[in-house]
Queue: 3 jobs
Job 1
Amino acid sequence: MHRVGGRGMVPVDVRVVAATHRDLAAMAKAGEFREDLYWRLDVLKIELPPLRERREDILPLAERFLARLSLQLGRRAEGFSPQAREALRGCAWPGNARQLANAIERALVLKEAPGPIGLGELPAEVTAPDRASGPAPTGRALADLVRALEREQIVLALKRARGVKSAAAEALGISRPTLDRKIEEYRIDLFE
């Protein structure tokens, strides 16, 4: 390979992994995708059906995400309640594994009590997909939901800022003293 502006060859060994939901062969035939690029990519095809068609994979994936995210976030959960497991299995997962991972991360952030993740920590699109844009299915008062959301956003901002409070406060659009007060109010442990 020649670098731009370079004079000599640079040896490289590259593997490309690409994913798409489009029919690239048909697009290449129609002139909508470069045929030479298609043939470079078409070495090994792996057809992977969407998560909704692989229900048996949902709970093992959820448990894997829970283990990984628990370490990343420094938060523990003892698996999933039976109701949460049923909700996870019953969701259509239009966002596939990425949506599942996001739901698990949100549940960990919102989790306040020890024990397994329950329905109350899972997002509405998982627990009641037909009512996801409507009222929250947890039956909690609006003030409780607002507090849970505020706590979640503070924890996420602190995580993204790697514990630097001034950076987290700036990202949240609040002052550092306000952030300190909220950390104390919500009993957020920076070293969890």
Job 2
Amino acid sequence: MEHPDINSKERTGAPTRVLLTGTNRWPAPARLAIGFAKAGCEVSAVCPSPGHPLLKTRAVQRAFPYSALRPLDSLTAAIEVTDPRVMIPCDDLGVQHLHDLYVRARSQGASGDRIATLIERSLGSPESYPIVSNRYSLLQIAREEGLLVPHTNPIDTIDDFGSGYAGWTFPWVLKADGTWGGKGVRIANMREQAEQFFGELTRAPRATAVIKRLVMHRDRLRLWASWHRSKPAVIVQSYIQGRPANCAVACWEGRVLAGIGVEVVSAEGLQGPAIVVRVVDNSQMMVAAERIARRLRLSGFFGLDFMIEEETNATYLIEMNPRCTPLCHLRLGKGRDMIGSLQAQLAGESFGDTPPVTHNDMIAYFPQAWTSQSQFLESSFNDVPEEEPDLIEALLHPWSERSLVGRAVDSLCRLGSQDHATPGCVFPAAVAAPEVSETSKV
């Protein structure tokens, strides 16, 4: 098959070709696909089947299977067919696969140049790849850039919980690389508890979790990745008393094109994913994104998580998400339209501001706010993909939860787990929190 020069500009009038990769069955990839399709792009996707939300939206014109045994070959096959202008990984495992594919492509010499160039265009400088998925390395870079970061140390063994923490007060926050949605986060109130949590974060997955992935989700891809991964890197951070916040940006060769900052109004527990957020103008968050993007010469989407200190309103960077986040598809007008600005950059066009989808600064994420019956639904913008009824049904009633087997496995997992479900958490200060001034310390 003959391909056009992948470095050339898209043909005049031809849609920009976007290839999304999604290994995790969460809503963000499908919402991003809808956004790019509305912006005039031709969207394809690589995802597991059955049951992935990307398969439930009409925005995806072509879908390709994501093999658990040969994920890099899956990506290569989709690239050969679609010849995309850009690839967008929608979860952390997808990011890792693109990094691995880049290494393989470079090892192939000239025959791999095309794929390697595509990944560089999509993600930015290859020098950033070992950094963006390593919490400790990323926070060290942030500190060098003058950003506020909690005290952070890497933990390799239990013996590392030693005298170096004499000046640290409890609680401590432990985090494992390669985890998301708060699943790899623990808060310890004493050293013995920290040691226990370290063991939990570094041990192999429970048998009940394995059964659930195989029987209920048929998630062979993530199970295979879990079996073959090395022990995850773990960090310990000092705890910042305050309220969570985050931002998401689209960037190009180290330059931020657009971004949105929010404070979390309600979430699935203290460390869980957000349910309702409030859009804010926080200069500290956006400056952090600009400095990280410039230092690492990033392209595509990424998000940063913060804690805003209760007493001072100082904004501490706590971690990075090196891929799209639930904010990325929202088109909120000038400077806040990530999809529109990135599409214009890829197509080599000037970008005119688009009207915001809402002027309400409270955003209720779908389906999280509905399944949790959030008290903020009536006062928030309801971010529902109303033009995609099949996607709505899939997100509200995931196929894996409809069967008797699925419900039985869920019950087994709850009985066998020592971690009880954490109730929803509301951060009242974020509902009408004071804006952080432009002159605040970064």
Job 3
Amino acid sequence: MNSLLQTLKYGMLRGGMRGLAGPVLIVMILAMMVLPLPPFLLDILFTFNIAIAIMVLLVSMNTNRALDFAAFPTILLITTLLRLSLNVASTRVVLMEGHTGPDAAGKVIEAFGHFLVGGNYAVGIVVFAILVVINFVVITKGAGRIAEVGARFTLDAMPGKQMAIDADLNAGLIGEDVARKRRAEIAQEADFYGAMDGASKFVRGDAVAGIIILLINIIGGLIVGVLQHDLDISTAAKYYTLLTIGDGLVAQIPALVISTAAGLVVSRVSSDENIGQQLVGQLFKQPQVIMLTAAIIGMMGMIPGMPHFAFLSLAGVMVWLAYFLSQKSEKASVLEQAEVVMPTLEEATEASWEDVSQVDVLGLEVGYRLISLVDKTQDGDLLRRIKGIRKKFTQDIGFLPPSVHIRDNLDLRPNAYRITLKGVEVGVGEAYPNQFLAIDPGNVTGKLSGTQTTDPAFGLPAVWALLSLFPQ
């Protein structure tokens, strides 16, 4: 008993801690905008921001459906807040300690300011502007448009999908739990694309904020360096511009990675393969296309003035790749033909679910003399009557019964029939073509000549009488 209580207490404690992870993270991110952070802690947080961006990109590439990463809009918002908080925290350090040198805001900003742009603030400004343009104009705008169109088409298709689920449920093809799950997926898909449409606006706003923060840091740094710390204009411009460019790059590169992940998530088509498998399986599926591309690249490489080594080496690699893929495709086709023509003994004797005969929900088995009743070429109208009964039953009861599968059975007597429910016999009787079944309701005064029997539906005495006994 004590162990059970301890287990329940541990589970509640663990669930509570997991539930508090989100609020604690948001509070910490917002606190970074107010509380001063040392350069060492800034290095750790900037590195963490880059790692999160790479993780999000890899997860988005390894999902088979957009709903497999349904938390992406929330992650997009959190990462945007994290970048803005780091920008505010680093701006505070840059303006307060920037006069001490390029390493005033930590080693990560210094590395991005020196290593990526070579310590040249003019080059850094150009690279930063290019990254902002790529992120703001190309990737984020395109991803937002795809999410908007996806949300619109998803909402338009919801009524049809709901009707399809209801039809499958009424036909008995799926159960209530499966139907409920499919309805929830449809609603979740619409919510996802709608949330992605709104979350993309955060990334676009982040890009605009990055440009504004860049200008504020440069102008504010010059004012602080010249007026408060008595630096000359060239030294102040060098220090504060390099720090600002490093700060902007260390924030915009993760933003570019996150925007790329958003575009991958909303632009992919749901399938059983992730993005990498789709690219390799579809882009390199036809060796003829690769061979033709290699020929075009090779002809371009032979034009005078072109870099022959780059074009011709790439053409050679593509020729080898096309030959390798064609050989692989031929081997696969040969193996498939061999498996079809020469099945192994194990495949011939091993049992599988395909060997299990399918059982019909409702079945009707007839003897060979009753085949004319179900054969349209012999003017049999039994199929039409069964369809009419099913339609009438559906209208009266409000439930769609399963289809009746009719087959002949030579084990039955010639005029016998058998009704089965999931393979179990629920009714049996005999019928005689070209004869009427005359039922005695209890007030018959005369007597008909024919075969005495019992009505299978009501259990009343009846007679199979010839058609000639009844006036037309």
